[in-house]
Every structure is written in C-alpha cells, then in structure tokens.
UniProtKB/TrEMBL annotation:
It comes from Stentor coeruleus. One of its GO terms (molecular function) is RNA binding. It comes from the Eukaryota. It holds the Pfam family ubiquitin. InterPro entries: UBFD1 (IPR039120), UBFD1_C (IPR057455), Ubiquitin-like_dom (IPR000626), Ubiquitin-like_domsf (IPR029071). Gene3D superfamilies: Phosphatidylinositol 3-kinase Catalytic Subunit, Chain A, domain 1. Residues 3-73 form the Ubiquitin-like domain. This is Ubiquitin-like domain-containing protein.
C-alpha cells in the first residue's frame, strides 16, 4: 500500500479531509479539489500561512499534518456563471468615472499601489469565515501588513516588518468598510477605536468582513446597535 499524506482543506463553510499519495504536488491537489468542490483548478487559490503559488511544490515538503488546514478560495463553475451575469449588470449600472479625489491624497496614494502580491482574492458576492490570518494588506502608512485574529485572547494583531500592534476586542467600538471600486471585492477596513481614533487597513477582502465584525463587535450587526438588548 503506497504511503499517503493527510490534511484538511476548508472551502467556505465546508471542510474536506484529504488523503493523497505522498509525492503529490500542489497541481495534483488542485485537480483533486476540482472533482470535490467543482472549483476549476486554474481558478483555485490555496493558502497555507501564505499563498501556494508553485504548482510543482511537493505536498510532503510543506510539513502537513492531519490537523493542518489549507484554505481554498474560489468559486464553482455555476457561481462563476451567475457572478459574471451579476457583474455585467452592475457594471452597466455603474458607468461612472470615479474621480481621483474620491479619497484624500494620503489614502489615494495607497490605493494606487494596487493589492499586494500576497493578497487574498477579493469577492463581492461571498460571505466567508475570516481566517486566523489575512495577509496582503497595507496599514495606514502604506506598509505591507497582515491582520491576525487571536480568538483565544480576544485580540487582533496588525503585524508589519517592524512592529506588531495588539488591539483588544474590547477596545474596538465598531468596524466599518469602504469599498475600493477600482478594485472590486477589496475594501478599506476601519477599526473604530474611539470617537476620534480610527485605524485603516487597505485591500481587506470584502467576503471576510461580516464574520470579522460579528466576531469582534457582535452588538453591531448589519448596522444595527443591539447593545440595548444586553
């Protein structure tokens, strides 16, 4: 019996237990996942701490265990067809040139950089559980950053190459976002830390917003203040 490697793949709210021959590659995994999820292999984005970009990577070289979770981001063939029709309709309705001064100059400068190379794909039409770590962001100063959700200690960490900003859930009064229309599916995520204190993160994927907000600010859901019902 040939040796196998076992691990888990999460796609949306579904988790798959995977077992493949130990010499399988990332490409082999994508082909297998296409059969299981109907997400076309060439449109799959796989993440393990960061994006798995090299299709020739041998899975055994990734130190995978049975408890390891790989995140799959991608739409099924049916969803792609529906999304394409919706997008066409939206674009027809939005035949408006967005002025360059739609954002303040300091924000526009960051937006003009475009999504970082390791950013998750943005998705306008999905609502997906936020992963423990969201890479591929820019912080308020335009530096590369990642957002890590520390559920076990009720904190979010904003990490860049030089520092880590730790913010307790309790210090976050609310979470909002502004869509970046030039890059559909991406947003400016705003953590409201006080009446005049806000922290922005750029190119946060829209599909993660609702679950992040529900996790950190459960009393502000869909714009409603539920604190009176505590």
């Amino acid at each position: 019996m040939s040796e196998t490697i076992s691990f888990k793949v999460t796609h949306g709210k579904i988790q798959y237990s995977i077992s493949l021959p130990i010499q399988s590659t990332v490409k082999d995994l994508k082909n297998y996942l296409e059969q299981q999820t109907r997400v076309p292999a060439n449109l799959q984005k796989l993440f393990l701490k960061g994006p798995l970009k090299n299709n020739d990577t041998i899975l055994s070289s990734l130190n995978l265990r049975e408890t390891t979770k790989i995140l799959l981001v991608g739409s099924t063939a049916d969803e792609i067809s529906i999304t394409s029709n919706i997008r066409t309709s939206i674009e027809e309705e939005r035949k408006i040139d967005i002025p360059r001064d739609a954002f303040p100059p300091d924000q526009q400068r960051i937006i003009d950089k475009g999504p970082p190379a390791d950013a998750f794909p943005g998705d306008l039409f999905s609502n997906i559980n936020v992963p423990d770590t969201v890479p591929g962001l820019y912080n308020h100063a335009g530096a590369n950053a990642r957002l890590t959700v520390k559920k076990e200690i009720d904190e979010v960490w904003i990490v860049n190459n030089t520092s880590t900003k730790r913010i307790p859930f309790a210090a976050i009064g609310n979470i909002n976002y502004i869509p970046i229309l030039k890059y559909p599916g991406y947003t400016i995520l705003t953590l409201v830390l006080g009446p005049s204190n806000k922290y922005n993160l750029y190119f946060f994927p829209q599909q993660f917003f609702n679950t992040l907000k529900t996790l950190i600010c459960p009393l502000f859901i869909d714009g409603l203040d539920l604190s009176q019902f505590k």
